[in-house]
């Protein structure tokens, strides 16, 4: 009996590894296409990079020198190969405007963006889980109708409008939180959390309705399944049948959407970091666009795209653990 159990466990593990391996292969192909598209981004821009950096009145010898420094005098395939090899080693180039290495610029600003998105996810789940569970449990009730209406209303408001409203009410009128600025967590944890509350809450208010509606819909469907009815017929309390039997299968779609939503979260962070003057990767992206710092822009876009792909791979692996049927179907 023990041997059969061990064999079954090894078989499930092999199926999960095989599934994740196939997903990793697909995502590697996506990364290759992403790197090609990111590299060609500079080639497809109108005009010439050297003209943007040196101006229209640049001397030919200055243009030739800059092209040699940036490697623009080499054939396109050779430049792409060198860029990919350097990127694999963590070298995304150096900004010709500031002289700062792109990798260092991203690493310096990354903690701010990670803290913002992490706080936003925590706040979004803190709002979505209890309201979604209650709305799904009392489908069609007063709470369900109120929550659904509020969710649609919040989804209709853009990020920057929510941010400005929160600044007006919580920062200017009530003076509970600072309107802009950032305090590193290592310097003062309390002030760091205060400085990140409004940006995180703004981002969370956009994400929470999506999670809430999805959880509410899946939970309401699961509660009508036969196994939940059987559990209730056996005399299990509603709380136990709800949290133990109905909630877990209702979380699969939520976890998947959280992974897919990373791209939306990053896009929202770009806007929020600009509105609240946070020195994160999103603001670095905006600064690179406004300053026409194309090499920094290229590196940041590649980093964001790679992060999105890796996060989705992690979500796929987690999904196969929570739902073994998924890896078995693709085994």
Question: What's the SSE blueprint?
Answer:
Layout lengths: L1 H43 L4 H6 L5 H11 L5 H13 L13 H36 L4 H14 L3 H15 L15 H34 L3 H8 L4 H13 L1 H9 L1 H14 L5 H10 L3 H29 L1 H6 L2
Helix pairs in contact: 1-14, 5-6, 5-8, 6-8, 7-8, 7-12, 8-10, 8-11, 8-12, 9-10, 11-14, 12-13, 13-14
Key traits:
331 residues; globular
Fraction in helix? over 70%
- The shape, in one word, is globular
What is the average of the pLDDT values?
Answer: 78
- Please tell me how large the radius of gyration is: 25 Å
**What's the end-to-end separation, in Å?**
24 Å
Q: What structural class results from the helix and strand content?
A: mainly alpha
Please write the string of helix (H) and strand (E) elements.
Answer: HHHHHHHHHHHHHHH
In terms of DSSP E residues, the strand content is under 5%
How can the largest sheet be summarized?
A: none
DSSP, total strands = 0
Query: Helix count, per DSSP?
Result: 15
Unreliable segments (pLDDT under 50, ≥5 consecutive)? none
What does this structure look like?
With 331 residues, this protein is an all-alpha fold. It has 15 helices and no strands. It has helices at residues 2-44, 49-54, 60-70, 76-88, 102-137, 142-155, 159-173, 189-222, 226-233, 238-250, 252-260, 262-275, 281-290, 294-322, 324-329. Helix 7 (159-173) packs across helix 12 (262-275) and helix 11 (252-260) runs antiparallel to helix 14. The model has no long low-confidence stretch (mean pLDDT 78).
